[in-house]
Here is the input.
Amino acid sequence: MAPANNVDLTAIMTALGGRQALQDLLGVGASAISNYVARGTVPTHVRSKLYGALTARGYQVRLDDLAILCAPDAPATAPAKPMVLLIIGGGIAAYKALETARQMQRLGLDVTGVMTKSAAQFITPLSVAALTNQKCYDDLFSLTDEAEMGHIRLARSADLVLVMPATANLMARAAAGIADDLATTILLATTAPVLMAPAMNPAMWTHPATSANLTILQQRGVHMIGPTEGDTACGEIGSGRMSEPADIAAAAYQLAVKRPRLLAGKTAIVTAGPTVEPIDSVRFIANHSSGKQGYAVAAALAAHGAAVTLISGPVNLPPPAQVNRISVQTAEQMLAATQAALPADIAVCAAAVADWRVAGSRHAKLKKPDRDTAEPIQLSLCENPDILASIAQSDQRPELVIGFAAETEDLQENAVAKRQRKQCDWIIANQVGGAADPVFGSDMNHIMLIGETTVENWPRMLKTELADRLAERIAEELSK
Ligand code: C5P
Here is the structure.
């Protein structure tokens, strides 16, 4: 007997009860199994053992390549795991794809690797294949790949396509719809959600060409995680460092696992971002709110099937898919838009509304006074309407009204008092202003969910994950 080629060892492993069972049967270690998986070939003596073990369990097996032709009667099959197609781009951060693949597997996802030509300069297809227990695809025109699984079928088999590191080049080609290799062809052919983790030199990240490509991709519904600030591999400090594997794996999990549409038929209003309050025609009062948390909540509610109106102050974020965004500037405009969007079943007020506006702000630009003679300029402020309180106390009060409380001290005490004062159902409280754990602009958040009689401390997590959990809690509450 000759060695067997084109062996699907993953299928055989499943049939024989998993990796450990296979190791025990063959009397080899994990690395030998990984090598067989990656190469798709097994030596003659291994072939005999596998053939014997499979047929003993009632499988019908083809002798030359050990293909399983027929399973024993009514096998107990585990439900299929969500599949992530991991496209690895050619950047120094490519090595982090291996750790991310491992973390995704721990979360219960199946991972199949796809590499660009330049990714192979940083890591090998063999290491990806060994780690994922799957063939790693890298060639659009490979005859065997096309015979086994065409690129369209590969793209369609995914529950999520994850691109990491998303290099400037890969983002540009995806934005332009170029399909000149397997990775970009998959990005064009897939109907699954796409998540990109950009990583590049800070100057490349802030270049207008990359910004324009980012906007195009986001407007098409591509999800982004990072990049974050910090040291980059090229030694420059700035934004461009890829998010950490654990965060990428968590975001991938959120997107790959299909959830029941728990909020189908419900309507929701979400406020997000800062408000800006004019001083004159060119100056304004504002704050550091990025809008990320509110946008994530709007996206999560929509993903669960709610009809969402997102009333947003000026932010640098594209509207989430399936969300009706209304853009406003001032608190008064935000209040008017919110009231116009009522009635609704759910209201989540995540906006950082300016508490005050300038009384009698001017249309003309204020002139700088003469430095020697003039009195200092005084701005007189008046209070803005409280949108959360006004919704919570309106005749058309939504069934569930949720506010946020960003506090710098006495978090729980202040948040509990705020919930009572504003008469909302829940307050989501977070500490802000800490340099070690910033909330404004960050992808992460750490909150307490405060209800009438309950206080829950949620662990630090991605804003997207928090939004998803919140959407589930909202659905649970409304179903009571
Ligand atoms: O009073 P404070 O600004 O801390 O309250 C925060 C909560 O109230 C947030 O949910 C925010 O969206 C909401 N709020 C509002 N209108 C205001 C001030 C705050 O809706 N004018």
